[in-house]
User: Which sequence fits this backbone?
């Protein structure tokens, strides 16, 4: 498993590009992963910036864009990037297993060689709650995911055309469809700072507060943040400080 995918749409580029740079630089320093980015948009400067980081860019629009536009309305351009990962099994034509992560990660060690039947994922908040997972780091069995693609898309489209609500976005669809059938990813492959400091963490995922938020909270700010940001940060301020420092180091690395 050497291919690593992230996804982004045009509107989200400006707010995510520094996180992508930190993720790519950390992967280059600590792994042999080959970064790929699925990009939905037309801005050539964005594509050039990604390519200059050493990322292979794949321009792509969601295969169920009409359903997403129906569900999100005017908010489609803001949130469409969340759903691009659904199409990874049809975009990948060579490898049997691939790694997907959100943009807000840093790599501290090579990922484990996981070979799930369909997907492997780790818990979202509670380490012991295995009935609901985070879709922020996934290992996909490409062939297996292709085999279940039709019913998975049918469920997604039914939700988008029905009583759709967010912020659950695609994560809710992943959890509903793969409930009881996903492989468990080691916690160290999707380690969150609110779990504390781990010497064994391979992928740190800033799920919730990002480094910028953590620094503002540490300085007594953040009153305008969602309450959960402060709740998560308070669980382990020392871990947020440590991992935010590492994030800054990789973000600023040439």
Assistant:
């Amino acid at each position: 498993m050497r291919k690593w995918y992230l996804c982004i749409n045009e509107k989200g580029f400006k707010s995510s590009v520094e996180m992508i740079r930190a993720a790519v630089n950390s992967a280059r320093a600590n792994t042999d992963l080959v970064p790929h980015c699925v990009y939905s948009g037309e801005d050539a400067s964005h594509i050039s910036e990604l390519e200059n980081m050493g990322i292979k860019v794949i321009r792509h629009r969601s295969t169920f864009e009409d359903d997403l536009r129906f569900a999100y309305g005017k908010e489609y351009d803001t949130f469409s990037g969340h759903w691009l990962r659904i199409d990874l099994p049809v975009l990948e034509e060579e490898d049997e297993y691939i790694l997907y992560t959100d943009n807000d990660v840093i790599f501290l060690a090579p990922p484990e060689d996981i070979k799930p039947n369909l997907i492997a994922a780790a818990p979202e908040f509670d380490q012991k709650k295995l009935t609901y997972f985070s879709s922020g780091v996934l290992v996909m069995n490409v062939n297996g995911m292709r085999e279940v693609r039709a019913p998975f898309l049918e469920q997604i489209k039914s939700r988008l055309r029905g009583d759709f609500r967010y912020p659950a976005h695609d994560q809710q669809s992943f959890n509903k469809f793969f409930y009881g059938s996903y492989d468990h990813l080691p916690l160290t492959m999707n380690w969150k700072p609110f779990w504390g400091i781990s010497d064994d963490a391979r992928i740190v995922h800033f799920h919730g507060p990002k480094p910028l938020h953590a620094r503002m909270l540490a300085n007594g700010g953040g009153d305008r943040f969602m309450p959960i940001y402060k709740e998560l940060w308070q669980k382990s301020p020392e871990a947020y400080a440590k991992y935010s420092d590492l994030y800054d180091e990789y973000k600023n690395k040439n």
Q: What stands out?
A: The beta strands are 3-9, 34-40, 56-59, 97-101, 105-107, 119-123, 133-141, 183-184, 203-205.
